[in-house]
Amino acid sequence: MKSLIGLVPLLCCAFGSFETSAADTPPVARPNILWISVEDISPDLGCYGDNHAVTPTIDRLAAEGVRFTRCFTHAGVCAPSRSGLITGCYPPSIGTHHMRCKGVTPDFVKCFPEYLRQAGYYCTNNVKTDYQFDVPATAWDENSNKADWRGRDRGQPFFSVINFTTTHESQIRDPSPATKKLVDKLSPEQRHDPAKMIVPPFYPDTPIVRRDIANYYDNITAVDGQVAGVLKKLEEDGLADDTIVWFWGDHGRGMPRYKRWLYDTGLHVPLIVYVPEKWRQHVRPDNADALKPGSTIDDLTAFVDFAPTVLSLAGLPKQEHFQGQAFFGPHRAEKPREHVYGHRDRMDETYDLIRTVRDKRFRYVRNFMPWQPYSQDIAYMNEMPTMQEWRRLHAAGELTGPQADWFRKQKPVEELYDTEADPYEINNLAHDPRLVITLERLRLRLEGWMREIGDVGLIPEPLFDELQRPGAKSDQAAAPGIVPASTEIEPGLTSCQLTCLTPGASIAYRIRPVAPKSNESASRWKVAPSNGLVPLQGGDELEAKACRIGFRDSEVVRFQPGQPKIDPAKNEALPHWRTRVIASTNNDHYHVPSAPFNHSLSTTIIPAPGDVSPVGKKALSDAKRREKFQNPANAIWLMNEWGRELKKADTRNASVMRDVIYRESPVPMKLVAARWLCEVEDPTPHLKLLVENLAHPQATVQLQAITALADLGEKARPVIEDIRKATKGGEYLARVSQRALAKLEAK
Questions:
Q1: Nearest in space to 418 (alpha carbons), one of 435, 401, 406
Q2: What is the mean pLDDT of residues 618-644?
Q3: Which positions ≥6 away from 491 have C-beta within 8 Å?
Q4: Residues belonging to the active site
């Protein structure tokens, strides 16, 4: 990295730099690890061969380090992507798959920096989290917009994350004052001419679209200068030779059909790792030469591989629950990946369900909700000028080819792309007879992966939320117990043991000295070691609380030497949702509709490959119907399938839906039945049921109810005033109600 020194000061003058001061730190016995993350960026960098990019700092980092050519996230949007990063688990496996949900993860799931902290690392995050759950106090030593490595103890190794939002989707269309200030400082040579931008073939080629693309590239140049500031600070502190630096983007370009989608445009991201020469043997014990400056790694790499790799670099034991594999360090996997996977679930207020698998050449996509179009409404996405222009030209009938295909009414059930011949993934080869074996191979691999991880994405979210938090109430971790040691470690120094009865809970503690120190370290929560032993000096006060992801923190308990022990509070939390799911399905390993994987069925709950809608091909027997309705998730998928072809003459299926409403059924089942019965009979009682649930305690039930009303269109006019009131509700409830109201008022 020393070759960056001549470049960094020049860029820092242009973009501003971090406050600097030399750190008197001796060489460390373990490597420091620094992550520099940027938002919403594809590999649109000079070092990846993009001739339009102006990224001298990042290009130099790649020239001094290693560039990964096939790194993929598992989700095309920030929060699910970062949830997998911080836990080392695929979000559909741990219940954090829907955008901006609040997951209750299984008890074995931790934020992986907790393991580093227990091993003595100083861990900081600056500043974005977006993990799909509240950040536990045990995750970071410091989590703020000023956090870096400088608060650590002398000689302490660190793991620091610096997140930059300059390239975020929002900064293309409506830059913040901070982003505007950075971009305004660009020289004319660094600015991007819209006329020279490459327009992807699925976009209309108009000045508005070109302007958005040019803004995106300007933002990348601006963030390049911010990266320069971080590297300058690291060098000035004398830490460059002991710090492994990662640069990565959290998902693809923040524009339509890139962000949120499961094509390479949404999942393929840049990853550059700089390894100082002294650490290359440690990072690649088998082949240190693979890390020589300017190298590339073409192996498939996944975001769930990041957590096990960091722990491997730090010399920590493997965590068996991690679903990725280390690509560096002593625990580096013997074989490279053969596949990477991805998922799309609810995006903001709009539901979809897609899964994908990719090998080095082919991508397979399975659309479990093919009736949802590609162009589905998402309010935040619709703010992008490119999206508005795209919709305008579609409405005017001026689109053809791939530009028009985006607005077809339904998606195909299966998609298959040759990414070498078709990098934009436009030509769907799922029906190409020459690729039948490839299609079947990837189809089975995707289904195998979904079973292996226990994908809960097929459980409708309102049902799943009730499993996570019955009655919309969060569990609380039980307060920890504190047992003082019987003897002193040394004069004036004793120890105590912290315990908690809530499975999976971690214990955060802090010690308030008798004489308060001048720095802030005494007020920061630390993570208790796995054995629970914490040293304590006479007169100091210990504070402790239990934390578990998805739970409310326990009450804080306080203890001073000389006090009697404090017994741990009783655990009153319900068994975890996965335990209850397994118990409710006769030991089937997860509670999802069984039919989508059985391609021999002529009638399936989810369309089988090659079918757009298999409804009505074969009537279910009464016994089979009752069997499927015992599982609420199955019932909801089945009713939605029937509903799309429900006719007034179809008294049998309509009768089943009425039974759902008037018997003891889960509310989400009732709402699905009400939505479809509105189409074939007097909607008055069914509209009343939908309106009543706009105030349900579960926010996702509210979203289900307003989505049903929006889908009903004119049939919902009798309750237009209730829809108007809902525009003042929660964020997603308000978005859908505003959309429904606008359509009703336009007529």
A1: 435
A2: 74
A3: none
A4: 78
Instruction: In whole angstroms, give the CA distance from residue 46 to residue 53.
Output: 5
Q: How far apart are CA 221 and CA 575, in angstroms?
A: 50
Residues 568 and 480: their CA atoms lie apart, in Å, by: 5
Tens digit of each residue's pLDDT (9 = 90 or more) over 341-373: 999 999 999 999 999 999 999 999 999 999 999
List pLDDT tens digits, range 604-616: 334 444 333 333 3
pLDDT at res. 22: 34
In degrees, to the nearest 5, what angle opens at C-alpha 532 toward C-alphas 526 and 561?
85
Residue range 481-559, CATH number: 2.60.40
Burial of 16: CB neighbours in 10 Å, binned 0-12, 13-18, 19+: middle
- In the numeric block, which tokens belong to residue 138? 């045990």
Domain 577-745 has CATH 1.25.10: yes
Report yes or no: 499 and 481 within 8 Å, Cβ to Cβ. yes
Residue that is written with structure tokens 């140049």 in the block? 221
pTM flag (> 0.85) = yes
CA atoms within a 13 Å half-sphere pointing along the CA-CB vector of 240 = 17
Cα(17)–Cα(546) distance, integer angstroms: 39
Say what the alpha-carbon torsion angle 666, 672, 676, 677 is, to the nearest 10 degrees.
20
Single-letter residue type at 430: A
pLDDT at 124 over 60: yes
Identify the architecture of domain 2-85+93-274 in CATH. 3-Layer(aba) Sandwich (3.40)
| Structure tokens belonging to residue 1 | 């990295």
- Tell me if 633 sits within 8 A of 591, measured CB to CB: yes
Query: In terms of Cα–Cα distance, which of 545, 368, 556 is closest to 457?
Result: 368
What are the structure tokens assigned to 63, written together? Answer: 């020239």
Q: What type of residue sits at position 570?
A: K
The CB density around residue 612, as the number of other CB atoms within 10 Å, is 12
For 614-620, which contacts have Cβ atoms below 8 Å and span 24 or more sequence positions? 614/641, 615/641, 615/642, 615/644, 615/645, 616/645
Structural contact between residues 133 and 469, judged by C-beta atoms closer than 8 angstroms: no
Q: What three-state secondary structure class fits 547?
A: strand
Provide the 10 A C-beta neighbour count for residue 624: 11
Closest CA to 667 of 689, 650, 647, 685: 689
How far is the CA of 147 from the CAs of 143, 521, 669, in angstroms? 6, 13, 47
